[in-house]
Amino acid sequence: MFCLPCAGGGASAYARWQERLDAFGARVRVLPVQLPGREDRAGEPRFTDLDALVADLDERLDTAFARPHLLYGHSMGAFVAHALTLARQRRGAPLPRALVLSSHRAPHVRPDRILDPDADDEALATSLAELGGIPWELARRPRFRAAYMPLVRDDLRLCSGWVEPADVEPLHVPLHLFTGVDDHLVPLPKMAAWRAHGARGSELRTMPGGHFFVRAHEDELLRAVAALTTRYGSAVPAV
């Protein structure tokens, strides 16, 4: 299962997933995807264009994607996962057995300005802290904001686009959707709108918590993900 991070995040967000999924009986290998410009790839230029990032990921992961797999993305990661799967569908490449997506508006839903990439560092950090993305203690530190907000801002711009409803091209994979019941950034209707993108059906599950329920209620999410790996187990062998 390949895992894509949220805006401002990196592969370390999934550091505990293999251990926890093993504990829940999942038979799957967790493969966090590290994007450029963060953590151990901090020295590489960041992408701010979605199509360019998708082309890079498609090429870099093409061999790995030839094996049966699931693709998970949280927030920005969900948006990127959809775009990557759509690009591969259009060129006839192997697709994931299912997409597991959490906490991002469907691609035909226009973004709001709760997290505004054009806001100054202090305002953007405040909005992110209100959503639970960073601790308030860090949000109040000017040096932290100066170092971290440019990454967040670039990522927000990366996933700021949308398609017209008439141009929706459904994916030929099942969609498994998760959203926090108290998520003010991506309320339930914006997550339910993903159903228009699932030609093989979709399932939507609400979780306790807000936009970052994946942290506060990680085990509950991973129990559900473990069940999905069992459902698709004949196609997603352990490595």
From TrEMBL:
Pfam families on file: Thioesterase (PF00975)
InterPro entries, per database record: AB_hydrolase_fold, TEII, Thioesterase
Signal peptide feature range: none
GO biological process entries: lipid biosynthetic process
Gene3D superfamilies the record matches: alpha/beta hydrolase
SUPFAM superfamilies: alpha/beta-Hydrolases (SSF53474)
Domain Thioesterase: 2-226
Family per record: Belongs to the thioesterase family.
Name of the protein described by the UniProt record: Thioesterase domain-containing protein
